[in-house]
Amino acid sequence: MKEKRLNNGIQMPAAGFGVFQVQDPEECTKAVLEAIETGYRLIDTAQSYGNEEAVGKAIAQTSVPREELFITTKVWITNYGYDKCKASVEESLKKLGVDYIDLVLLHQAYADYYGAYRALEDLYKEGKIRAIGVSNFFPDRLVDLCLNVEIIPSVNQVEVNPFMQQIEAQKWNEKYGIQMEAWAPFAEGRNNMFTNPILSEIAEEHQKSVAQVILRWLVQRNIVPLSKSVKKERMEQNIDIFDFELTKEDMKKIASLDEKTSSFFDHYDPAIIESLFKLH
Question: Which residues are catalytic?
Answer without folding.
Answer: 49
